[in-house]
Amino acid sequence: MIVDYIIIGQGISGTLLSFKMMQQNISHVVIDHSKPYTASKVASGVINPITGRKFVKTWMINELMPFAKNTYKSIEQLLNISIFQETSVLDFHTTDQMQKAFDERAKIEFAFLNNNVNNDDFNKYFSFENGLGKISPCYLIDINTLIETWRNYLVQNDSLLDEVFNEEEINFKPHSIVYKNIEAKKIIYCNGIETMQSKWFNQLPFAPNKGEALIVDIPSLPNKNIYKNGITIVPWKENLFWVGSSYEWNFENNQPTIAFKQKVEKDLKRWLKVPFRVLDHISSTRPTNTERRPFVGVLKQNPKIAILNGMGTKGCSLAPFFCIELVNNLIENTPIHIEADVNRFYK
User: Fold this and answer.
1) Which end of the chain is more exposed for a tag (fewer CB within 10 A), N or C?
2) What is the SS3 string spanning the chain?
3) Cβ(314)–Cβ(258) under 8 Å?
4) For the segment 216-254, what is each residue's pLDDT rounded down to a tens digit?
5) Given a cut of 70, is residue 347 above it in pLDDT?
């Protein structure tokens, strides 16, 4: 089989890169061995333009959001699925200081922050002492439906190799790269935390971060908003909610822990006035890094090797923009954003 590119991994980055290549009629094959819980499959799918305790805009969010909306809506149209929702985050302030910080920041970031929210609308669902603010617009992506449907699309088009990738089986030719029976111009690493094991990328400043979440049935709670109060409640699927998440830098494995489950159940009992029932407990390891910027581009020391990775907790917002940047770089040699270019680490 001869293709233009080989993509390793079918998480959010590999899926969107494959989609963008398909749009431009670029031949490719995706190598991915399906797992029940990966960083993409466990992620909430939230694109929030505001971050942190100081309520500042997320890096590049004004550029990222239009790309994200256009990309996910285009996928919806192609596959005849529903994966994109425009919504709001209702931020229940945990302290007076947090409420004051939100109110002050709303004077600056008025395009996204609104402190004119009627508390009475939510008293029947939640127990809270301070006020709440609204962050809007936010986007919510159904990542599991996206990945599953795109995987089926790849299978139908003979573009998926379902197996564990083995870097030792790469062979280099003068003008191409060969993996088993597949010959391509380049191979692109989109395989999340597994990229840390690659001899090409094992010196990058990856900082693996474990995240856990509960899948919870809350029948009485409206699913039109995202709710935040220390923990976050996000509409999931089939009228269920994703509740989490943890950000663990020191962990023994990527398995769910009793401590997390007990803590979140305690927080839900404190916060919710309506009944709930925990149905599932999921966890995975995110490909975060110390710079909090993605790794994108073709290696200068080996032009047959490329990467689209390191999206951390913001894959849904970063991947649409940077998959387009990478494709344009591959085809037209346009530059990668200086803060994301992987070659910033290679002298």
Assistant:
1) C
2) CECCEEEECCCHHHHHHHHHHHHCCCCEEEECCCCCCCHHHHCCCEECCEECCCCEECCCHHHHHHHHHHHHHHHHHHHCCCCEEEEEEEEECCCHHHHHHHHHHHCCCCCCEECCCCHHHCCCCECCCCCEEEEEEEEEECHHHHHHHHHHHHHHCCCEECCCCCHHHEEEECCEEEECCEEECEEEECCHHHHHHCCCCCCCCECCEEEEEEEEECCCCCCCCEEEECEEEEECCCCEEEEECCCECCCCCCCCCHHHHHHHHHHHHHHECCCCEEEEEEEEEECCECCCCCEEEECCCCCCEEEEECCHHHHHHHHHHHHHHHHHHHHHCCCCCCCCEHHHHCC
3) no
4) 999 999 999 999 998 999 999 878 999 988 888 888 888
5) no
Burial class (CB in 10 A: 0-12, 13-18, 19+), 265: middle
Q: 289, 345 in Cβ contact below 8 A?
A: no
Contacts of 274-279 with CB under 8 Å at 24 or more apart are: 274/124, 274/125, 274/218, 274/219, 274/220, 274/221, 275/218, 275/219, 275/220, 276/216, 276/217, 276/218, 277/216, 277/217, 278/214, 278/215, 278/216, 278/217, 279/215, 279/216, 279/217, 279/240
Q: Which two structure tokens, joined as six digits, stand for 292?
A: 């909090």
Residue from 179, 221, 219, 193 nearest 312 by CA: 193
Rounded CA separation 230/267 (Å): 9
Q: Which two tokens stand for residue 69?
A: 């909306």
Whether 285 and 210 have beta carbons less than 8 Å apart is answered as: yes
Residue closest to 125 by CA, chosen among 231, 232, 241, 273: 273
**C-alpha dist (Å) from residue 133 to 24, 60, 89, 99, 138:** 42, 23, 8, 8, 13
Residue 263 has pLDDT above 70, yes or no: yes
Please, which residues bridge with residue 102 across strands?
Answer: none
